[in-house]
Amino acid sequence: MKNKNRPISPHLQIYKPQLTSILSISHRFTGIILYLSTFLISFWLFCIAFNNNLKIILDSFFFSNFGKIILFFITFSFIYHFLNGIRHLVWDFGYGFNIKNVYLTGFIIIILTLALNIYIWFF
Amino acid sequence: MINSLKKFCSFGFSKDGSSQWIWQRISALLLIFLFSWIIFSLQKLLINFTTDFYAWIKIPINMILFITLFIVVMHHSTLGILNIFEDYIQSKKKKKFFSTLLKTISFLIIFLSIFSVWHIYSEII
Question: Which of A64, A100, B11, B123 is deepest in the core (most CB within 10 A)?
Answer without folding.
Answer: B11
